[in-house]
Amino acid sequence: MPLTFAAPDADALPLTLIEQDGLDAWLADQPDRVKTWVGASSFSGALGTSLVIPGEDGAPVAALVGYGSEATRARQRFPLAAVATQLPAGAYRIAAGLPADRAETEALGWLLAGYGFSRYRDQTPKVAGLVAPEGVDAARIEVLATAEALTRDLVNTPASDMGPSALEAAARALATDHGASIEVTTGTDLLEKNFPMIHAVGRAATDEPRLIDMRWGDEGPALTLVGKGVCFDTGGLNLKPGSSMGLMKKDMGGSANVLGLAHAIMALGLKLRLRVLIPAVENSVSGASFRPQDILTSRKGLSVEINNTDAEGRLVLADALALADEEKPDLIVSMATLTGAARVAVGPDLAAFFATEDRVADALGRSAGPSADPVWRLPYHAPYEEMIEPGIADLDNAPSGGFAGAITAALFLRRFVTNTSAYAHFDIFSYQLSAAPGRSKGGFGQGGRAILGALPDLLDL
């Protein structure tokens, strides 16, 4: 179903948000029949609870929603979304109790509560309609919800239906929707056009590796998004154990996130020149697989010793980043489900990121809260540079020892961005392990809204 608000002129029931310690104060101004009705219920204002209030004829005339306490709300990204699937069908408008600085976040969460991945069976939740709260840009919030749904759909689709060619098709469909141009380099053409590491990682798969290159906009500052598109990661010849391979359909989460962000940028009509680069591959196993201790020469000319074929994401990103850097855009952002080390450092809920400039990091930090998209900066720690220098080649794709894995991966990628001063790299999980309000189990967007919110500061839009 489309993630949209109810029509403003809908015959909507008033919805009042009640904090856990505010019920008595609200009841003091209500007629006796309402006091009696609420008193006979278990409603207390606890977060995630609701109560429909009938009129004298028994028909619903209003509803109460528990908004908990500041402490309980802090534990949820979208606290109000919990009741979106509880209320009876119909349309509702928020009459009181919603802080102005929470209106956009709660409105977005309500829409996202309506997301369900239904490609293989209908999982669409039954969600009550909501009239956009006063002061909220309804069209913008609907764009953000659609962008998030696109990201989730792409991540949730298994590799049987989301290999490199299907990911290309999804990018082409998005380009068509927004009038963007797109070029794709596939198979051995990657070698001819000097993308050797993308080709090496993907050459063992039956679905050929490719580089997707989409452009949109002809005025304003230049933004290039680079997304890791490893549609399934077996680990290659360094084969993952089964327990680690179970979620590897999501290893193209970086590409899903940049496509979702690209949709938002184009749908909102931002005045910038957008480029999206996605190296789309499957890291598979066959006689053509690249091997441990192979040495690959990258597009940048840097040689890379392969010490683990399961550290393939940085290889395909490196060639794409080198291409991005050749144009010297105003900002490059890469997104990837890159390292388990980032998950150990910040867990699945935070988007770890690295930034070459403090102004970039500061803008992302300011945007994260209002965007309901938490991020956390990790450092480019220069003393660790020697950890990615194996001696036999310029770079090591998988330093031994296991320490600082997220940082060494980010340092590796930074070696391929030498002409562009403003570069941010996001190491994300892009998956919700268990359902929460507004956050269905499965594929999940991370970092995109924080980036979108930071663009006006970073690019003077």
UniProtKB/TrEMBL annotation:
<dbReference type="Pfam" id="PF00883">
    <property type="entry name" value="Peptidase_M17"/>
</dbReference>
<dbReference type="Pfam" id="PF21337">
    <property type="entry name" value="Peptidase_M17_N_1"/>
</dbReference>
<comment type="similarity">
    <text>Belongs to the peptidase M17 family.</text>
</comment>
<keyword id="KW-0031">Aminopeptidase</keyword>
<dbReference type="InterPro" id="IPR000819">
    <property type="entry name" value="Peptidase_M17_C"/>
</dbReference>
<dbReference type="InterPro" id="IPR011356">
    <property type="entry name" value="Leucine_aapep/pepB"/>
</dbReference>
<keyword id="KW-0378">Hydrolase</keyword>
<dbReference type="InterPro" id="IPR043472">
    <property type="entry name" value="Macro_dom-like"/>
</dbReference>
<dbReference type="GO" id="GO:0030145">
    <property type="term" value="F:manganese ion binding"/>
</dbReference>
<dbReference type="GO" id="GO:0070006">
    <property type="term" value="F:metalloaminopeptidase activity"/>
</dbReference>
<keyword id="KW-0464">Manganese</keyword>
<protein>
    <submittedName>
        <fullName>Leucyl aminopeptidase</fullName>
    </submittedName>
</protein>
<dbReference type="GO" id="GO:0006508">
    <property type="term" value="P:proteolysis"/>
</dbReference>
<feature type="domain" description="Cytosol aminopeptidase">
    <location>
        <begin position="308"/>
        <end position="315"/>
    </location>
</feature>
<keyword id="KW-0645">Protease</keyword>
<dbReference type="InterPro" id="IPR048816">
    <property type="entry name" value="Peptidase_M17_N_1"/>
</dbReference>
<dbReference type="GO" id="GO:0005737">
    <property type="term" value="C:cytoplasm"/>
</dbReference>
